Amino acid sequence: MGFWLEYFGGVRLKDITEANIYTAVSKMKNRKAKERWESHVKAAKKKGQEIPAYEEVPVSVATKAKHLALMKALLRAAERDWKWLEKAPVIKIPPVRDRRVRWLEPHEAQRLVDECPDPLQSVVKFALSTGLRRSNIINLEWSQIDMQRQVAWIHPDQSKSSRAIGVALNETACKVLRDQIGNHSKWVFVHTKPSTNPDGKVMPKVRKMRVDDNTAWNSALKRAGIENFRFHDLRHTWASWLVQSGVPLSILQEMGGWESIEMVRRYAHLAPNHLTEHARQIDAIFGGCVPNPSQSGKLAIAK
C-alpha cells in the first residue's frame, strides 16, 4: 500500500488510469536490493574498504503482480462496493510462474544450525520446528505463549493472512523457548551480549533482535556451505519435511496459516503416496506382474 500512496498521494480516484498505473509499476525500485547494498556500504566503511558501486536490480514479476492485484482490488471495491467510481480501470495482472520451493535435507539443516551463533541459532531452530515467518519469531512476546498447553498464537495484525494463527508447539520448539526464559520480560528472542555498530555506537547487552539484520545469517550460510537459501526457506523446509512425513495438505494449511489450499499445493509433489492406490490399477492389467529391469525380453501380459 505504501508504494501506491507514495505514487498517487493526493490524486483523485477518477484521475487514476490504466496508463499511469502501469507507468508507476514500471518505475518500481527493488527496495531489498538497495537495503542490502547499504549494509555492504556500512561494512566496507567499518573495514576501511572501497565502497561497492550500487547496481540496480530489477523488480520481480511476482512483486509487480502483487501490487497490481492490490490496486485492482481497491479500484474494483471503489466501483462496486463504495460507489466512488462509475467505472474502474481494467488492470491486467501478469502471470507468475510457480514460486520456487527451496528446502534443506535434515543433515544440511543441522549443519546450518551448528554454524549459527546465538540468539540466531535459537531463532533458526524455532523456525524449523514451527514454520513461523521470521518477523513473527523476532516479534514474539511471552504473552503469546502458553507453555503448559504447548501452544502459541500469532495475532491477526501480525499474520500475512490477517487472521489469527494458532501454533502447536512440539518438544523441540518448547525446549528452545525454555532456554530463552529469563533473558527478557517481554520479548522471547533477544541479544544477550553487547556489540558495536559500524558507526562505533555500542549497543546494550540485552536488546531486541532486528528483522532486517542478515549479517550473522549470511555468515552462517557461508560457513555451512549452503547457497541460494533465504531465511524464509526455513518455512519451506518445515513444510516439506511435514509433507514427506505424511501430513495431509489440508492439515499443513492450517498449521502454517496459509489462506488457501492452493498456496500449499506447491508441496504436493513431495508426497505422491496418496496416488499409489490409483497407480496400482495398472497392476491388474499386467496381472500383478511387475517387470524386472534386470531381465531382458518382452513383458508377458497375463490373459
Automatic annotation (TrEMBL):
Q: Name one GO biological process term.
A: DNA integration
Which Gene3D superfamilies does UniProt cross-reference here?
Answer: 1.10.150.130, Intergrase catalytic core
- Please give the Pfam families that the UniProt record associates with this protein: Phage_integrase (PF00589)
Any one GO MF annotation of this record: DNA binding
Taxonomic superkingdom:
Bacteria
* Keywords from the named record: DNA integration, DNA recombination, DNA-binding
Query: Which PROSITE patterns does this entry report, sorted A to Z?
Result: CB, TYR_RECOMBINASE
Q: Which SUPFAM superfamilies match?
A: DNA breaking-rejoining enzymes (SSF56349)
Domain (Core-binding (CB)) ranges = 1-79
The chain positions of domain Tyr recombinase read: 99-280
Which CDD domains does the UniProt entry name for this protein? INT_Rci_Hp1_C
Q: Which InterPro entries match?
A: CB, DNA_brk_join_enz, Integrase-like_cat_sf, Integrase_catalytic, Integrase_recombinase_N, Tyrosine_recombinase_XerCD
Q: What's the family?
A: Belongs to the 'phage' integrase family.
Query: What is the official name of this protein in its record?
Result: Site-specific recombinase XerD
Q: Which organism is it from?
A: Xenorhabdus japonica
